C-alpha cells in the first residue's frame, strides 16, 4: 500500500492556554498516558534515548495515521499492546527492520493519536500537511509538556513529537509539576561517552585496588613491649596500616591513641606519650622494641627519640636481629643510636612470636 507522506510536525509557534483547568487536564492526561506506556512495556527513559530525527518522526507519524485508518489493526494493537511488525511493514512499504528499529515511537504516536484518549497531549502536538521542515537546531530552547520531573532535569513532550530531557530555563526547577508547559535546553546525552566513562571507572577502580593492596602490604613489624605487646604493621610508605594489642593495657592504647595511617615516628610518639600520661610507663623506666621483616632506620624517628631522651626512658631495640640502644646523653639525634657490636640475635631467640 505504502505511506502517503502528507503529514508532518510543524515548527510554527502555537498559543497554549496556561490556566489551572488546562494544567489539571494535562496532568490527568500525562498520568493516563504514562500508565498506557507501561501497558506497552515502554518508559520515558527508552523513548528519550531512542528519539529519532524530525525526518524520521514525520515518517513514523504517517505510518501511525495509516494504522489508525485500519480499524481492525487499530483494535488489535490497542487490545494486544503490541504491534505486528510484518503487517505494518507490508501496509507502509517500509522494511521490517525500520519498523522494528522505530517500534517505540510508532507505539508512542499510536497512543498519543488514538481517538478519545489523552486529548490535551494530542492537541499540544503541531501536526500539519506538507510543510517544509526547517533545520532542527537542538541548541534552541525547547518547549514541551512536562512528563517527568527529576532532580536536575525534566522529560518533556515537544510539539514536534519528541520525548527529550531538558534543563528548564523559564521557571524555577522546584516549582515544576507534571503537566506544566516549560522551556528548556536539551541535556547532553551520554551516548558515545558511556564506553569512555565505563573504561575510566574500571581503570580508577583497578588503581584503587592496587593502591590498597600496596598500602596494606606489611614491610616491617614493630612490637613495642610496654605492659604487654603492642604490634604495629608498617607498609613501604612508612605508615602504620594495622595495630593490635596483646594485653588489656595495649588494647586500650590501640583503642584510644591515633595510630592507624600515621607515620611510624608519629605512631610511636603517640603511644609513648599516652603511656606516660596514663602511668603505663614512667620517667626513667625501660621499654623493649622488636622489629622483624625489614629493619627500621631509627635515626629518622626524631620525634620518638627526642621523647625517649627527654623522659630518660631506656630503650632496648632488636632491629631485625641486631641489638641497638639509644644514647640518652647525646644531643644529636643522628648519633643517639648505637649498635651493640657482636650481639646479633636470631628471631627465634626472642620471647615473642611474630606473624608477618
Order the strands across the largest sheet as they lie in space: 9-8-7-10-11-12-13
The count of helical stretches stands at 12
- Per the principal axes of the C-alpha atoms, what is the gross shape? rod-shaped
**β-strand amount:** 15-25%
Ranges with pLDDT <50 over ≥5 residues?
340-356
**Whole-number radius of gyration?**
38 Å
Distance between the termini: 81 Å
Q: Write the element-wise H/E pattern from the N-terminal end onward.
A: EHHHHHHHHEEEEEHEEEHHEHEEE
Quick one: biggest sheet?
A: 7 strands, mixed
Q: Care to count the β-strands?
A: 13
SS content category: alpha+beta
Helical percent range? 25-40%
- The overall pLDDT, averaged over residues, is 83
Write a structural description:
This protein is an alpha+beta fold. Among the domains are: 8-132, no CATH class; 216-339, no CATH class. Helix content is 38%, strand content 21%. It contains twelve helices and 13 strands. β3 (142-149) and β4 form a beta hairpin. The N and C termini lie far apart (81 Å).
Amino acid at each position: 500500500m505504502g505511506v502517503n507522506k502528507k503529514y508532518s510536525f510543524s515548527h510554527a509557534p502555537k498559543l497554549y492556554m496556561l490556566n489551572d483547568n488546562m494544567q489539571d487536564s494535562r496532568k490527568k492526561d500525562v498520568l493516563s498516558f504514562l500508565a498506557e506506556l507501561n501497558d506497552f512495556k515502554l518508559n520515558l527513559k527508552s523513548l528519550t534515548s531512542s528519539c529519532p530525527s524530525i525526518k524520521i518522526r514525520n515518517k513514523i507519524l504517517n505510518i501511525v495515521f495509516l494504522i489508525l485508518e485500519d480499524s481492525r489493526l487499530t483494535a488489535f494493537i490497542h487490545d494486544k499492546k503490541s504491534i505486528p511488525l510484518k503487517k505494518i511493514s507490508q501496509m507502509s512499504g517500509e522494511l521490517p527492520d525500520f519498523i522494528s528499529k522505530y517500534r517505540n515511537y510508532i507505539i508512542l504516536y499510536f497512543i498519543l493519536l488514538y481517538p478519545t484518549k489523552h486529548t490535551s497531549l494530542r492537541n499540544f502536538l503541531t501536526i500539519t500537511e506538507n510543510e517544509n521542515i526547517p533545520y532542527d537546531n537542538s541548541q534552541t530552547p525547547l518547549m514541551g509538556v512536562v512528563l517527568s520531573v527529576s532532580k536536575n532535569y525534566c522529560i518533556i513532550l515537544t510539539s514536534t513529537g519528541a520525548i527529550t530531557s531538558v534543563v528548564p530555563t523559564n521557571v524555577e526547577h522546584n516549582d515544576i509539576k507534571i503537566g506544566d508547559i516549560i522551556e528548556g535546553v536539551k541535556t547532553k546525552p551520554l551516548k558515545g561517552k558511556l564506553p569512555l566513562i565505563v573504561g575510566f571507572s574500571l581503570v580508577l577502580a583497578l588503581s584503587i585496588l592496587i593502591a590498597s593492596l600496596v598500602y596494606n602490604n606489611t614491610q616491617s613489624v614493630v612490637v613495642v613491649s610496654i605492659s604487654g605487646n603492642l604490634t604495629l604493621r608498617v607498609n613501604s610508605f612508612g605508615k602504620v596500616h594495622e595495630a593490635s594489642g596483646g594485653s588489656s593495657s595495649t588494647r586500650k592504647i590501640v583503642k584510644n591513641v591515633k595510630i592507624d595511617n600515621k607515620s611510624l615516628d608519629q605512631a610511636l610518639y603517640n603511644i609513648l606519650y599516652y603511656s606516660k600520661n596514663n602511668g603505663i610507663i614512667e620517667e626513667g623506666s625501660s621499654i623493649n622494641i622488636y622489629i622483624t621483616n625489614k629493619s627500621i632506620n631509627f635515626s629518622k624517628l626524631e620525634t620518638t627519640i627526642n621523647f625517649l631522651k627527654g623522659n630518660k626512658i631506656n630503650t632496648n631495640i632488636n632491629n631485625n636481629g641486631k641489638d641497638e640502644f639509644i644514647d640518652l646523653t647525646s644531643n644529636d639525634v643522628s648519633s643517639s643510636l648505637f649498635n651493640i657490636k657482636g650481639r646479633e640475635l636470631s628471631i627465634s631467640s626472642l620471647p615473642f612470636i611474630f606473624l608477618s
